[in-house]
Amino acid sequence: MLALTGLSAPGQDFSDVQVERGPTGFRFTEGPAWSGEFLLFSDIPSNRILKLVPGQPGVAVFREDSGGANGNAFDSKGRLYTCEGGNRRVTRTSPDGKIEVLAERFDGKRLNAPNDIVVRRDGHMYFTDPAFGSQEDTRELSFYGVFHLTPRGDLNVIARMDKRPNGVALSPNGRTLYVNGADERVVRMYDLDRSGNATNGRVLISGIEGVPDGIRTDEKGNLYVAAKALLIYSPSGQFLRTVNLPETPANLEFGDGDLKGLYITARRSIYYIRMPVKGAAQR
C-alpha cells in the first residue's frame, strides 16, 4: 500500500485505499473518460487516444492523429467530447465514428488550446482554454477562458482570466462547476442554473501543493484534485487526505460498473484505486 496522509472527516474513510499500477510505458497520459464499458485516455505527445478495457491485458489504439487530444468526456448518448489542444478546437465523436467540430473560434478568433471538458446530464458542456508552453506563441485571444457550450451549439464565456485554468468537474447534482486554477493553485466554484449559465464565481480551495490539473467529484460531493499527489477535499473545501503515487498525477476518472474504480493518468502510467465511495454519475 502506498502512503496516505491527512485526517478523514466524519463519515469519510479513505484509510485503506490501495494504489495499483496498470499499463505503463506511455509518454504523457491525460484525459481519462469512462464510457460505461471501457476507459479512454490521451497520450498527448504520441497524438493518440487509447482504450483500456478492464480485465483485458494492455491497451488498444482508439484514435491515431488525435489533434493533440487532451481532455475527454462522454455524454448520456455515448458520444465522446474531446479537447483537441493541437488543433485548438473541441470535437464530438458519435458512436458510429463521425467527428464534428463544436467549437474552434470565439469572437472570430481561434481558441488557445482547449484543455479539459465536462458534460452535464442535460447536454450543457464546459471546457477550459489555457495555453501552455509553445501554445502561448500562437494565441489570438487576449485571455484564458472558461467556456460554456450549450446543447444548441452556442459558445459563451464564463470567465476571462489572466491566469490559466485547467481541470473542470461538476457536483453530483450538476448545479456547481469546479475549475482548477493552475497558476494560482486554487479550485474555483460557480453556481449553475437550469439553463447552464454560471454565476457567483469564488475560490473554494487555495494553497494547493503542486499544480492542480484534473479534478473529479464523488457521489457525496468530495473533490479529488490531481496535483503534486492526489488530494481529496470535502464539498466545503476541507482537506481530507493525500494519496501519494509513484508518478505525478495529471487527471482522473471514476469507472467500472459500480463507479468505484478510480483511474488516474500519471505521466507514463495509468494507476487504479478501488474506492469506498462511487464517483458522481454525470451521464
Overview of the structural elements:
The protein is globular and about 50 Å long. It has strands spanning 4-5, 19-24, 29-34, 39-43, 48-52, 60-63, 69-74, 80-84, 89-93, 99-103, 105-106, 109-110, 117-119, 125-129, 144-149, 155-161, 165-170, 176-181, 186-192, 198-205, 215-217, 223-226, 230-233, 239-243, 251-255, 261-266, 269-274. Strands 1-24-23-22-21 form a 5-stranded antiparallel beta sheet, with no helix packed on it. It has a 4-stranded antiparallel beta sheet with strand order 2-27-26-25, with no helix packed on it. A 4-stranded antiparallel beta sheet has the order 3-4-5-6, with no helix packed on it. The protein has one domain (4-274): 6 Propeller (Neuraminidase). Strand 23 and strand 24 form a beta hairpin. It is built from no helices and 27 strands. It is mostly beta strands and 283 residues long. The protein starts with a strand and ends in a 9-residue tail after the last strand.
